[in-house]
Known about the structure:
22% helix, alpha+beta, L,D-transpeptidase catalytic domain-like, single chain, ten-stranded mixed β-sheet
Amino acid sequence: MKSFAPLFQRSIISLFSLASALLLCQCSPSIDGRSKMIVSVRDQKLLLTKDGRPVKAYKVSTSKFGLGSGSGTNRTPIGKLGIAKKIGGSAPKGMVFKSRRPTGEVLKPNAPGRDPIVSRIMWLYGKEGHNRNTYRRCVYIHGTPEEWSLGSPASYGCIRMSSSDVVDLYNRVGVGAEVQVIRGGLTTTTEGQRYARTVSYQLLGFSNGG
């Protein structure tokens, strides 16, 4: 029986973490069921959609250690996730967070020698069996002062954005919004193809890509 104890304990902790994340969503006054974010690891971009229609694309950084959900691997989880909690809504851009609390220090973009979490935090939870420990692993969408590294895998498991972009995204989405991390490019998805057509039409001078 002793050999099963650690496995049983890990299972209980994972289930408790998932239940806590879901409870946070259920307790929210309004759940965002309209917004969806698609994170392309190949493109290092996040596409925001509303009701299936593309809204905006942002440059991001996923983990430099690759994809996965193992504890202690510092990898970005793949698959369907959701926003469990939003933190820092009233903080100025560049505010440094430690243990999800504002420290009072504010950093400018690309401040030398610094790599903390800044500006905003959107705490994620896993919606599938293989990534159910995402909340317990403290995987976030958050701001980074190392904006020069965006567009390349550079994080320790989280999804990094510039301060301006993470504040913009934070203001557009709510708790419960879906986040889907995919290996391929954005144009492998219906939403990504629609976004590409919209951008192409805009470049040609049309106001609506159809």
